[in-house]
Design a protein that fits this description.
Largest sheet of chain B: 5 strands, antiparallel
CATH architecture of the domain at 25-134 in chain B: 2-Layer Sandwich
Number of domains of chain A: 1
Number of helices of chain A: 5
Strand order of the largest sheet of chain B: 3-2-6-5-4
Order of helices and strands of chain A: EEHEEEHEHEHEH
CATH superfamily of chain A: P-loop containing nucleotide triphosphate hydrolases
CATH topology of the domain at 25-134 in chain B: Beta-Lactamase
Largest sheet of chain A: 8 strands, mixed
Radius of gyration of chain A: 16 Å
Largest interface: A-B, 45 and 40 residues
Structural class of chain B: alpha+beta
Strand content of chain B: 15-25%
Shape of chain A: globular
Order of helices and strands of chain B: EHEEHEEEHH
Number of strands of chain A: 8
CATH architecture of chain A: 3-Layer(aba) Sandwich
Helix content of chain B: 40-55%
Number of helices of chain B: 4
Helix content of chain A: 25-40%
Radius of gyration of chain B: 18 Å
CATH topology of chain A: Rossmann fold
Shape of chain B: globular
Number of strands of chain B: 6
CATH class of chain A: Alpha Beta
Oligomer: heterodimer
Distance between the termini of chain B: 41 Å
Chain lengths: 194, 164
């Protein structure tokens, strides 16, 4: 839920990166963090296990500059992708303004993608949102891997409502900012409709 | 309450009132820092030695903490745990839920005590709830007539954000 502060002329929006475990959600945030001007970002917080798997969430506050005299801040969150952390995932979707689904392009992860997408629909609904109406983009990550299935297949299996899709290699940053920009744009457009 | 499903909007007047409640609490409770965040992790206002901490991260982690504790409460059939307390070697954190959607956080050290903080927080929470319900009334009154400052946002405006 965006938060508009007229006193300090700020607007804060929340974007959640969703997707199956080991799909590259945290890597997206790490790349954004590494490439953003220090004055425009806060700390990257990662609540992870000893083996660097996301336990609760990653969090990165980003300052995108000014729109119509309001400072525009985006709070980026990732969810823990592993199936058994479902209770935590549900909590993180609370008050979300936009969602990025980070799909893993490897053939062997296609079932995990589908399961996570289904889980996203359910958890959004439980938080009072609908995937069909919420600002949403789809990222096909790990396009560099030899086992990656064709984008057309990804599109056919994962695209739910004609949302924008981005091919990405999060480790090197390919497609990362394009994805962020697209979802941020959708969120701001949604705000303008209210 | 319809307001829960909408964006939260805060205007100058309420912001001033909230800030003055926090300022008083900060003094009365002998606290190092007091701040108010919403349950989604957005910081509303803060008072105290703020340069020493990253308040944005503090806000987000507090909300995560409260969300996880809420989840725990529901699991065992409680509505919520309205107060959380973390005790450290030097500093302690007192977290309480205000008006169901806000979180009031007080960070204090040995110059204060848990008893004093709890007492002062109770008073401040009541005042904050009043401001909150005023905000809700105002939002309901203004209803449709409020035009979002983003109503006339253009694609160009948005593109400009990413131009660098």
């Amino acid at each position: 839920m965006s938060f508009i502060n007229y006193a300090s002329r700020e607007i804060n929006c929340k974007i959640v990166y969703y997707g199956p475990g080991l799909g590259g959600k945290t890597t997206n945030l790490q790349f954004i963090y590494a490439k953003t001007n220090p004055s425009n970002k806060g700390q990257l917080i990662s609540l992870a296990t000893e083996t660097d798997r996301t336990l609760f969430f990653d969090f990165l506050p980003l300052d995108l500059g000014t729109v119509r005299g309001f400072r525009t801040r985006f709070h980026l969150y990732t969810v823990p992708g592993q199936v058994f952390y479902d209770a935590s995932r549900k909590l993180i979707l609370k008050g979300v303004d936009g969602v990025v689904f980070v799909a893993d392009s490897q053939e062997a992860r296609m079932d995990a993608n589908l399961e996570s997408l289904e889980n996203l629909k359910i958890n959004l609904r439980e938080n009072g949102f609908d995937l069909m109406t919420i600002p949403y983009v789809l990222q096909h990550n790990k396009r560099d891997l030899p086992t990656a299935v064709p984008v057309e297949t990804m599109h056919r299996m994962l695209n739910v409502k004609g949302e924008q899709e981005f091919e990405a290699v999060a480790t090197t940053g390919v497609g990362v900012f394009e994805t962020l920009k697209a979802v941020a744009k959708l969120v701001l457009q949604e705000l303008s409709k209210r | 309450m319809a307001i829960l499903s909408q964006s939260m909007v805060i205007y100058e007047e309420e912001f001033e009132r909230i800030s003055s409640v926090l300022a008083r609490l900060w003094v009365d409770a002998n606290a190092k820092i007091v701040f108010l965040v919403d349950k989604n992790g957005q910081q509303l206002a803060a008072k105290g030695d703020l340069d020493k901490v990253d308040t944005t991260s503090l806000a987000s982690l507090t909300a995560g903490n409260v969300a996880a504790t809420d989840g725990l409460a529901r699991l065992i059939g409680e509505k919520e745990f309205s107060i959380l307390f973390h005790e450290g070697e030097r500093d302690n954190i007192h977290i309480s839920i205000v008006g169901q959607r806000l979180i009031l956080v007080v960070i204090f050290d040995e110059r204060s005590s848990l008893g004093l903080v709890r007492l002062r927080v109770r008073k401040a929470a009541a005042e904050l709830e009043e401001v909150l319900s005023q905000m809700a009334d105002k939002a309901a009154q203004r209803g449709e007539e409020v035009v979002s400052p983003f109503a006339e946002i253009t694609d160009e405006d948005i593109d400009n954000l990413f131009s660098e």
